[in-house]
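User: Sorry, what's this?
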Amino acid sequence: MDIHEKVSLLQELVACCDAISTWCYDAKGELLFSNCTDETVLNTAFSAFGCRSILMEHTNIWSNPFLLGTSLGLVWGAAFEREDGVLRRFWLLGPVFYATTTKGQIELGYDLYRGLELSIAWKEQFMQAASRLPVVTSELLGRYLLMLHYCLTGQTLHYSDIVMPTELLRPAKPAEPTKRDRYQVYAAERALLDMVRNGDLNYAEAFSNSSLLSSGVPVSGPDPLRQVKSSITVFTSLVCRAAIEGGVSPEEAYSLGDAYIQRAENARSQQELLNLPATMYDDFIHRVHRCRTNPRYSQAVQKCIDYIELHLEERIRAADLARQTGYDEYYLTHRFKKETGYAVSDYVRFAKIERAKVLLSSTALSVQEIADKLGFSSRSYFIRSFRGVTGQTPSAWRAQADQ
């Protein structure tokens, strides 16, 4: 039985339990074939998210199989086919998720790759493909990968022999902050916790900025898994207390926090923890948001408020809200003002100013950049609006917040 026959048999056996795709690439990293129904978009993802380049860098260093992870929670397994010591092909299993992942969590991880300038159309195709991917534990994917390695080499390995490069756990990030940068870390973390207290659903950018500024608690020691667990425990504890301040009952918050900390403690690899902080944070944010939802608001008005929160970087008009709710624009605007006490335009402006405060306190964006980001027509109009709400200019407010 040749290699292709062995791999085909393995595909059939794996398919009895999990719908995991198999891929074959040549020594230069060009795709030869796969049995994936979303081949084009997921092949692009494998390259765009940096997994292909990392794998190609290590083909002449390692002979053992790889597990390749991304900040979205996607994981591929890779094994090598060599002839007389020279790489002939490499094979992939995946991608899969280690845990059930929501669309919001995938988008949160996707935002870390915004610099790649992938098109909106491609993102939509990727999100649809990601929603169809199987959930497979790290241990099970590892076992499948060891079987693939055996088919290619005839060599029997153990799970501990699988290579798990730590640099694949997140996109490239700056070096550890210097002493001068530690205030940026503090400001970003403060913004994250404020968003929990407010139940702010539009948190993706702040979460991304914080992740790139700091890799977590700087615990020194020989066990990197222990460091990740310690970081998650500290972060969960902070988020838990912020959620209580935001209105979640202590009983619910502490029980939820304990469950996430225990889940981290039970993990046996860094890959299992890859998506846990984002999942935990998203969970607490939504619980606070539900607590802060005004019971006096009708479903239509609450839907408008949620839409405004999630689209603050866009120009929001009453007509947009009417389309979201299915109501006539005239009726909706009157109902909105009656229930909230504000005209739609005033509420949008106030919400944008609140977001501007977060950006001023947690980023180094200029006043002009924040004005552009939040869709104000000019810098001067943004400053007038900000002063009208806060009594201060954006620069003065930032200086006060930095004290």
